[in-house]
Specification:
Layout: E1 10-15, H1 19-25, H2 28-31, E2 35-42, H3 44-54, E3 58-62, H4 72-90, E4 94-99, H5 103-112, E5 116-120, H6 131-137, E6 142-145, E7 158-159
Parallel strand pairs: 1-2, 1-4, 2-3, 4-5, 5-6, 6-7
Amino acid sequence: MSGRSGSKKRVMFIASTGGHLSELLRLSPLFESYDFSVVTEKTDSDFGRMRERYGDRAAFLIFGTRERPFAYPFKLFLNCWISLALFIKFRPRYIVTTGAHTAGPMCLIGKALGAKIVFIESFANINSPSVTGKAVYKFADLFIVQWESMLRFYPKARYFGGLL
């Protein structure tokens, strides 16, 4: 991921596996306009597909789920360190994310180190905010909701409709 040169802005696209990643990949036509990297969790279903599609521009965090309450805090802690290493290696100017927990630490790290944060609240959230969304909303440079109803939770957000 490092060592690329040129005048394109460095953008890191990051999302948890599953629906969050599917939403993020809807932005893939924009990727080539930037010096980009894509970060998600390493799962059997995503690893090969992401490597094949994005090569060394794809990076992976440890898959974790809150459904495993004992292991989750440890994996989250390790992902914080991996996120820091990925940030230092790629040095993005912008971080664009659809969430969820995987993206939270990267957004905090990015903000602390001067990156601009663009958070897109999940399309699945129509009537309630996400945990990561509530946290990142406080410092995101641009916060986007995909449902107008979500503006009641995020009054400073921008509504653009769905990524569909």
